[in-house]
Amino acid sequence: MKQGTAICYGLAVCDVLIPGIPRDAFEAETTRIPRFTYSTGGDAINEAITLVKLGHQARLMSLVGKDLFGDFILQQGEQIGVDMKGVVRDPHLPTTVSLVCIHPDGERSFIINHGADNSISEDCIDWTALKDADVVSVGSAFSCSGLTKALPKLLRMAKEKGIITCVDVIRGPDDAAKADLEAFLPYTDYIFPNYDEGCWFSGETELDRIASCFLQMGARHAVIKTGKDG
């Protein structure tokens, strides 16, 4: 297998996984659990870690705070072999932390602070790194406006250099519009919405129609994730 080099741009957060939390836990003064664990989270760092484990090279471009949680994210990435030199650290912003409350039935509830991920922007991009990249992969487009607004320029420059471009999306705020998609989809080789996100962005409910909507706006390929159905 040919080894490739990917730039992963987007979210990198710290997940605190708390299993066995009953839904009425916050009605009690104290709830004890057997354990909780820390993990990295966010599409961009998850993609980078997975690519390294598959034998490729990956460079993360993201934003974290200059705090213990930011230290943890950098240490975890470096230990696995992700190039973390593209991660910007802002001493004035807290690293984003997601408390993942895992209920006995397996469902999850999330408590997330207003952290550095909301300030990811074009300023977090190392443009010189594009010269060595085979793929640019964007994690969590529409998670914040600065990240989304940076995509047309980033993806256009990548395509001008012959780089494969991939975008994973999340459902954005209500003011996110097709205009935002239309600005960067012409420079997107692969877009990866899940079914609910695809319905929301396209206004369609049939898979073929959802995919056609993305293709008509310029994407070369649309991959709709449908959970357990494939």
Can you offer a commentary on this structure?
With 230 residues, this protein is α/β, with parallel strands linked by helices. The chain has one domain (5-11, 44-88, 117-229): Ribokinase (UDP-N-acetylmuramoyl-L-alanine:D-glutamate ligase). Helices cover 28% and strands 26% of the residues. It contains 6 helices and 11 strands. The strands form 2 sheets. Strands 5-4-1-8-9-10-11 form a 7-stranded parallel beta sheet, with helices on both faces. Strands 3-2-6-7 form a 4-stranded mixed beta sheet. Helix 5 crosses helix 6. The longest helix has 16 residues, at 145-160. The protein is globular and about 55 Å long. The chain starts with a strand and ends in an 8-residue tail after the last strand. The model has no long low-confidence stretch (mean pLDDT 93).
List the helices and strands and how they pair.
Blueprint: E1 5-10, E2 13-19, E3 37-41, H1 43-53, E4 57-65, H2 68-80, E5 87-90, E6 97-102, E7 108-112, E8 135-141, H3 145-160, E9 164-169, H4 178-184, E10 190-192, H5 195-202, H6 207-216, E11 221-222
Parallel strand pairs: 1-4, 1-8, 2-6, 4-5, 8-9, 9-10, 10-11
Antiparallel strand pairs: 2-3, 6-7
Helix pairs in contact: 5-6
Tell me briefly what this model is:
The chain has 230 residues and is α/β, with parallel strands linked by helices. It contains six helices and eleven strands.
Shape: globular
Note the main sheet.
7 strands, parallel
User: How many E strands?
Assistant: 11
- How much is the radius of gyration in Å? 18 Å
Overall average residue pLDDT: 93
Order of helices and strands: EEEHEHEEEEHEHEHHE
The rounded distance between the terminal residues' Cα atoms is: 25 Å
The fraction of residues in strands falls at: 25-35%
Q: State the domain count.
A: 1
Tell me the structural class: alpha/beta
CATH homologous superfamily caption: Ribokinase
Please name the CATH architecture. 3-Layer(aba) Sandwich
- List the total number of helices: 6
Q: Oligomeric status of the shown chains?
A: single chain
